[in-house]
Design brief:
With about 450 residues, this protein is of the alpha/beta class. The chain has three domains: about 5-195, Rossmann fold (3-Layer(aba) Sandwich), CATH 3.40.50; about 205-290, N-(1-d-carboxylethyl)-l-norvaline Dehydrogenase, domain 2; about 295-435, NAD(P)-binding Rossmann-like Domain (Rossmann fold). It is about 45% helix and about 15% strand. The protein contains 19 helices and 15 strands. It has helices spanning about 10-20, 35-40, 50-60, 70-75, 100-110, 125-140, 160-165, 175-185, 200-230, 235-240, 260-275, 280-295, 295-305, 330-340, 355-360, 375-380, 395, 400-405, 420-425, and strands at about 5, 25-30, 65-70, 80-85, 115-120, 145-150, 170, 195, 310-315, 345-350, 365, 370-375, 385-390, 410-415, 430-435. The strands form three sheets. The chain has a seven-stranded mixed beta sheet. α5 packs parallel to α6 (about 125-140) and α9 packs across α11. The protein is elongated and about 75 Å long. The mean pLDDT is about 95. The structure holds uridine-5'-diphosphate-xylopyranose. Uridine-5'-diphosphate-xylopyranose (UDX) binds near residues 209, 216 and 320.
């Protein structure tokens, strides 16, 4: 078993650390935030993620995982140091690598024995060559350090499961030594391993995420055409899904993709291509379609209603997808400001994300509009003139079609997630607009 240090305790770092401990490695997670470290030591996860707290507690008690702000002690004698810090998007779409650089410098100053530095963060192709050079330039002790790439494919909400049961582990190394260490380190997971060069590993991450983003944008593009030609995107997706070459996943049309990965990674790869003088047309199209898709329903509703001013607007779902409290690039963030600007009186419901949303849009007046947060979906619907569905939470899916008619002043629903069947909404007397399907009146 190996002695592992993990830099950064966000989704990527913390989940990786906990899963390494779970398979028996000795793990120390490093974060700069004292409060966060205290919290994690007491078994509380700073992020909302299924199974995470349970495994944090179990492995902490077993002495396999610890948390610290003292990076020197954590890195000093580690066999492998995983970097899972953020690479946020900058104004020009490129990835901000300052957090990685900072950790690399700390590693260089701390390591006292040969070790592999494994970059899990998503970084532009070629970055790990630079990280390696940077660490070697600043090394204090005479030790061998090699940088490896080990991109992460976990999805939020199922992060622990995705890590323990990953479809593949990709490792990118430049020496037999680094490859062997990583192969052995991952052995207890019993998962398929793909061992390639560092640059190919970096590219696999972007190419995979951007392909999925493209798949969603393609379906949204086709959905928009379906509406115009009188076809139904749900039926179309079903018909496509039987073809193994297409597959049945990620064919769901909706209000556009959000989250921490697809929006960022599409822009980052497009940026890499541009820097190399290459026009990455497919990915550019995915980005453009996604941008327009997010406000599609708002545009439709604006045409249907004379104004939002003074209307009670129910908003169901604020997070970018169910099972997470993450709001990054969520459709709600595009639509709520537009509605407020128009003077809407919003009643928002989200089983998990309301508190984070309220830090951006506190309850009360915002210009001509106002926003109130409610703990039950039906309180949002009561007397509402119009309802927008942005996230397909189970709690939202459980609202029976008839309830829109019962609770709302006018049962007018704009569903960005195609939760309901058209016939059931029609039978319940709801005017229903969704994505890529006929409207029901
Ligand atoms: C994604 C990838 O799935 C993961 O492999 C990668 O490591 C990080 O990015 P995540 O962002 O957590 O994970 O969520 P995911 O479930 O993939 O959904 C992303 C967005 O796409 C959500 O907004 C979701 O609503 C949307 N989506 C997904 C669709 O609109 N249609 C689909 O068919 C699938």
């Amino acid at each position: 078993m190996y002695k592992i240090a993990v830099a950064g305790t966000g989704y990527v770092g913390l989940v990786a650390g906990v899963c390494f401990a779970e398979v028996g490695h000795e793990v120390t997670c490093v974060d700069i935030d004292e409060e966060k470290v205290k919290l994690m030591k007491s078994g509380v996860s700073p992020i909302y993620e299924a199974d995470l707290e349970e495994l944090m507690k179990k492995n902490y008690v077993a002495g396999r995982i610890d948390y610290t702000t003292d990076y020197r002690s954590a890195y000093k004698e580690a066999d492998a140091i995983f970097i899972g810090v953020g690479t946020p998007e900058q104004a020009d779409g490129s990835a901000n690598l300052s957090y990685i650089a900072k950790v690399a410098r700390q590693i260089a100053e701390s390591v006292e024995k040969d070790c592999i530095v494994v970059v899990k963060s998503t970084v532009p192709i070629g970055t790990n060559d630079k990280v390696e050079q940077y660490i070697r330039d600043f090394l204090v002790h005479d030790v061998k350090v090699e940088v490896a790439s080990n991109p992460e494919f976990l999805a939020q909400g199922t992060a622990v499961h995705d890590t323990l049961h990953a479809e593949r582990i990709v490792i990118g190394t430049e020496s037999k030594w680094a490859e062997d260490v990583l192969m052995k380190l991952y052995e207890p997971f019993h998962l398929p391993m793909v061992s390639v060069t560092r640059r190919s590993a970096e590219m696999i991450k972007y190419a995979s995420n951007d392909f999925l983003a493209l798949k969603i944008s393609y379906m949204n593009d086709i959905a928009n055409l379906c509406e115009l030609v009188g076809a139904d995107i749900e039926d179309v997706a079903k018909g496509m899904s039987y073809d193994d070459r297409i597959g049945s996943k990620f064919l769901k049309a909706g209000i556009g993709y959000g989250g921490s990965c697809f929006p960022k990674d599409t822009k980052a790869l497009e940026n890499v291509a541009r820097q190399h003088g290459y026009d990455l047309k497919t990915v550019k199209a995915a980005i453009d379609i996604n941008k327009e898709q997010k406000t599609k329903l708002y545009e439709k509703a604006s045409k249907r209603l004379m104004t939002f001013a003074g209307l009670k607007v129910a908003v169901l779902g604020l997070t970018f997808k169910p099972g997470t409290d993450d709001l990054r690039e969520a459709a709600s963030l595009e639509n709520v400001p537009l509605l407020l600007e128009q003077g809407a009186d919003i009643y928002a419901y989200d089983p998990v994300g309301a508190d984070s949303f309220a830090t951006l849009y506190p309850e009360g007046e915002h210009g001509k509009g106002r926003i109130t947060y409610v703990s039950h979906a039906e309180d949002a619907l009561k007397e509402a003139n119009v309802c927008f569905i942005f996230t397909e939470w189970e709690e939202v899916k459980q609202i029976a079609p008839k309830q829109y008619d019962t609770f709302m002043r006018t049962p007018l629903v704009y569903d960005g997630r195609n939760i309901y069947r058209l016939d059931e909404m029609k039978a319940a007397g709801v005017e229903y607009h969704s994505i890529g399907r006929a409207s029901v009146k």
